[in-house]
Specification:
Largest sheet: 9 strands, antiparallel
Number of strands: 19
Shape: globular
Order of helices and strands: HEEEEEEEEEEEEEEEEEEE
Radius of gyration: 22 Å
Distance between the termini: 78 Å
Number of domains: 2
Organism: Chryseobacterium tagetis
Protein name: SH3 domain-containing protein
Helix content: under 10%
Oligomer: single chain
Strand content: over 45%
Amino acid sequence: MKTLFTAVFLLIVQIFSAQEEDYEYANGVFQFEENKTQKIFTDQTRIRQSPNVNSQILDSLSTNQQVLILKKEETILKLGERRANWYKISYQKGDTTSEGYIWGGNLSVGYRNKNGYDFLFGLTKTISKKDKGYPEITIQQNIAAIKVVEGNMLIDEVSFDTGSAESLSYGTFNIESNHKLQNVELTLKATVSGEACGIASYDQYILFKDKKLILLPQLMNVGDADVYYHSEEFVFPNDKGGIPNAFIFKMEEMEKDDRDREKKKKASKTYLWNGNSYKLK
């Protein structure tokens, strides 16, 4: 009897521990506040009767549909490297207000509105690819996208890498000025980052002109306390040290040797902008 009780107790502990691990491992970029509005990112996102992929489908919502987060559910669904809670939401179609459940991975990580356009940042999928430094190793790579919507019409979309799941602890999405680049209406910046040392963060700049999105080379930053760091940045024409009709890529690395001496490395390259596209000088 005692053995049976012990076995049941250990099973219960394992179940609750597994649930806790799943909950804690949900990607931070998909943590949305209750009683706050969000935007649908994945087109034709399914709204379900309960927080389960096998639940009845009640409706589907298009990209850029606004929803209100009512409650975050404990249930987590993993698709590739994307792990997100289910959310109970409320939304309006015409004069009708409805409720249902949505997987958080289908919501925008961030969204902005400017000059009559809606800009959405979200994650779309996970792919397998060879590691650049170690071709024999296959890594799981998350893919993100930026969408620009005018009214109810998607007018452009671009995709880019965002690293592994460890780099999805935190995400931001902002609209910046045109940085004095010719013919550029504005600049978007999407960022994802991890919380631990040694986990890379990624900055993706996107230029917007003539209803088109133009990806700039991606920036990566990573560090390990005061032992090592690798930093990348752009210097635009309106920044200190900037030059007209160009943006400058700057990289700096520091690593300490066995005697705690700093070894630094710096590099830079210039990209020329002609008002429509860029090329390496």
